[in-house]
Amino acid sequence: MDFRCAVAEKVSEITGLELEQVNRLLEIPPQEDMGDFAFPCFMLAKTMHKAPNMIASELSGSEKLSASWLSKVEAKGPYLNFFVDRGAFSKEIVSDILSKGTEYGKSDEGAGKTVIVEFSSPNIAKPFHVGHAFTTILGHSLSRIYEKLGYNVVRMNHLGDYGTQFGKLITAYRLWGDEEALEKDPITELLRIYVKFHEEEKNDPELTTSARENFKRLEDGCEEEVSLWQKFRDMSLIVFEQLYKRMGVTFDNYNGESYYAKMADQVVSMLKEKNLLVESDGAQVVDLEEFGVPPCIILKSDGTTIYGTRDIAAILYRDENYHFDKNIYVVGIPQALHFKQVFSTLKKAGYECADKCEHVGFGLVKFQNMKFSTRDGNIVLLEELLDESVAKTYELIKANAEARNSDLSDEELRDIAEKVGLGAVIYTYVKAGRERDIVFSWDTMLDFEGDTAPYLIYTYARTRSILRKAADQGFLPEKAGSDLLTKLDGDEEFACVKALGDLPEAIRKAASSNEPFMVSRAVSGIARAFNRFYNNCSILGGDDNEKKTARLALCEAVCDAIEAGTYLLGISVVEQM
Fold first, then answer.
1. Cβ distance 254 to 236 under 8 Å?
2. Which residue in 137, 167, 181, 529 could disulfide with 499, CB within 3.0 to 4.6 Å?
């Protein structure tokens, strides 16, 4: 039973409002004494010709609002407040989780619909730094969230494997490349010569000319330039794949800019046929004044394509081959204008798929007193950040294990540190709204008592420990559907159950807003509510065995919900710490 929907149905019945409209208006009160759900009566004032508080008072006395699962309905000012029966609510929510396990929150609302999520999309021949992690982690999480809701998800890694920078790299490699260094550590060597190119280019304009010529030859399919480009691409992918595997990230498609470059001529021809191309300073552009955005460049003055052209080709390819219902681009906020231009160009050309495309922007990644620039070689590598997080986590859990005389082996401690350390970094990217900038702080990230992955993982491990200890004493969690679950009606117990009940709606909201932090906030709320319950209630103590098994069922439900939620964020849990 979905209590929110049940309340909405009651309100719809007595007000005549559409169920969908009621669902949008239904609120969760800020304080417990205001009930579990609240309906604001403001919009009824016009049709009922009464003050909202009078409407709320009249509706609260309706016999149609009585139900076995409601303890009371009362008016508080202009709000109609619903108090659910705690026992019935606890039995329903906990039973639902126990029967579904980590499938809790799963739905089929996306059945038959395809969502393309384009994320990560690093430039080949360049290091994978902490900025790339933002798109990678967000896209990975959104992919899992949409899958949870039954969508067919296609993960796209639109590699930056084309463009004038490769002309620069070819020039740099011919002048300063070290083959032995390239074989040993390809990304480091390619970065070295790329940085050197930009240093030398400041005083030697001939390098710029050479780079442009090399890119033109690459576009024309000249064998030597294509061979070098393919070499750089293959080497880069090997390095990227190692990092993706470590983070549990997978892709269904690696078609990069180069794949769509061969389709660019078709885009140009299509726009010409529709009489949408106009000349501007020698370039061919599509005027988008009607959409309130600057023109979209299709061909540069030298006749070469630009990445906007290739993005248009990619959308048309995806529409034809996947018939997507959503085409999501997880790309930084600075690219917002670019996507407006691309989507607007397609819309002007008459393609309906333009309205199914969405840019999901995100903020910046910062360390104190530091800015990132690949050209200057001033970057923080993601792999190094992960390594440091794991190393710091290992020292923390090792010290804690020694203090507790734990029998965990060093191998087990290192495995735990890997999961918790990676989780700490991942959670930093998804703990707040995606458009907010991130400033890294080790003290914050690795705080086992704050809003962090270590806190969530520790809560899971602690709860698993309680369940193991109970099993050793001969106590098992109450089963789904048992009437004994109605005993979970104390303040701390009920607060925990309510937090559990919020997770499915948080998953739906995360998808509708493309905001994984909706899930992280819900999981964090479960962990905080459980720890308050743990600190204020005896789970294994006392003589009331029925209460004991009911509380163990709550523990089991908390574990399932935390594991289900952290999985959606890309974070793994551990059974003990």
1. no
2. 529
